[in-house]
Design brief:
The protein is an all-alpha fold and 117 residues long. It has three helices and no strands.
């Protein structure tokens, strides 16, 4: 009986931890979307259309972002931090290297980008 009680307690606690993790992931994605769409933050949408979101502005300078959910997090992070590392002729600014976005802000943008299919 004690074993069943312990298993039940562990299940309830692990469910709570999982739900808390989803909430923080949702918050991180929301933060990343705000950075992506806000012209005083990342303003990614000025050059990249994604998820049907558009903004008055060039919007077509960079490629349309799609299928990013399949990209490794590290590759997306590196692309935002300093796109010239992988593509020396990229016109995309180095948001991390230039200090425009913090490590946490880049991670939030990556979380949002991972929702793009």
């Amino acid at each position: 009986m004690k074993l069943i009680k312990n298993l039940l307690t562990a299940t309830v606690l692990s469910s709570f931890v999982a739900i808390s993790g989803f909430a923080s992931d949702a918050e991180l994605i929301k933060k990343g979307e705000k950075i992506y769409t806000t012209n005083t933050l990342g303003n990614c949408i000025a050059c990249h259309a994604a998820n049907g979101k558009t903004l008055d502005g060039p919007g077509s300078m960079g490629p349309v972002l799609q299928y990013l959910s399949a990209w490794p997090d590290e590759a997306l992070y590196d692309k935002i931090y300093d796109p010239n590392t992988a593509n020396p002729i990229s016109v995309m600014p180095a948001f991390g290297k230039n200090g425009w976005l913090s490590d946490d802000e880049i991670k939030a943008v990556v979380a949002y980008l991972k929702t793009i299919n």
